[in-house]
Amino acid sequence: MNIVRIIPCLDVKNGKVVKGINFVNLRDVGDPAETGEAYCREGADELVFLDITATVESRGTRLEWVKKVMQKVTIPIAVGGGIRNIEDVKALLDLGVNKVSVNTTAVRNPELVREISKKFGKENLVVAIDGQKNSHEPNLPRLEVVVKSGSESTGVDVVDWAKRVEEMGAGEILLTSKDADGTKEGYDLEMTKAVAEAVSIPVIASGGAGKLEHFYEAVTIGKAAAVLAASVFHFGEISIPGAKKYLKEQGISVNI
Questions:
Q1: How many Cα atoms are found within 13 Å in the side-chain-facing hemisphere of 42?
Q2: What sign has the CA pseudo-torsion 247, 249, 250, 256?
Q3: Fewer CB within 10 A of the end CB, N or C, for the chain?
Q4: Hey, what domains does the chain have and what are their CATH numbers?
Q5: pTM attached to this predicted model
Q6: 228 sits in which H/E element
Q7: Per-residue confidence of the chain (256 residues) as pLDDT tens digits?
Q8: 224 CB contacts (<8 Å, ≥6 apart)?
Q9: What is the DSSP string of 102-114?
Q10: How far apart are CA 65 and CA 121, in angstroms?
Q11: Catalytic annotation on 130?
Q12: Secondary structure of residue 247 in the 3-state scheme
């Protein structure tokens, strides 16, 4: 069995780590660099840093925020939010970022996925997919891609899009359920499993972790290769070592 990664997420707005529910009602958590450093000490396998208002504000990633985090963090980090072109990718990789994550721009300009993968390698490219469920809209996919921090529907099917970005050279997929985000009621297992079974690249489950069992379900039912969480880690409800110990006890391979 592959080793399952535990990944805390730093959603950054106005230079602060924030966390909300269903992508809204954001609460301040703290300083990104200090928070990232703490997760390194706790034994996180990787970090994800998302400049969550960059796309909405039509700007690039705030490199100065990323720089401060990079000075403190000793584990691999993926950065997303506001990446619009090859130059933006190069600027982040030049700072020492391990992976870039593209989301809205990839949906708007799918060829960018192919360009980034070809120029920098698929191991440096994460495609983030935000999805929501539609149960009463017959003209929309049941599992639909949303963009611009979940504020805009696309009419694109989540699974179809996942298969397409794999074909274009994505190294892994960061899959977030807008419906589950921040609810602490568990990952969207239907969506996670549907995507994980449709592609051969790793899928990171995101959105909804509230208890230890949710991590186990994401891996065993959802077929996720990694589990990402924010609220439960930020507010001390679950620790990184605690999550790893639990998963190991359940027979899941983790880095201790």
A1: 23
A2: positive
A3: N
A4: 5-249 (3.20.20.70)
A5: 0.94
A6: strand 226-229
A7: 689 999 999 999 999 999 777 766 566 778 999 999 999 999 999 999 999 889 889 999 999 999 999 999 999 999 999 999 999 999 999 999 999 999 999 999 999 999 999 999 999 999 999 999 997 778 889 999 999 877 889 999 999 999 999 999 999 999 999 999 889 999 999 999 999 999 999 999 999 999 999 999 999 999 999 999 999 999 999 999 999 999 999 999 999 8
A8: 4, 187, 192, 196, 203, 204, 205, 218
A9: E-HHHHH-THHHH
A10: 25
A11: yes
A12: helix
Choosing from 45, 51, 88, 130, the catalytic residue is 130
Query: Alpha-carbon distance 179 to 192, whole Å?
Result: 13
**Residues with Cβ within 8 Å of residue 73, at least 6 apart in sequence:** 33, 36, 37, 40, 47
Instruction: Let me know if 31 is a catalytic residue.
Output: no
Ramachandran area for residue 149 (φ above 0: left; ψ -120 to 50: alpha; else beta): left
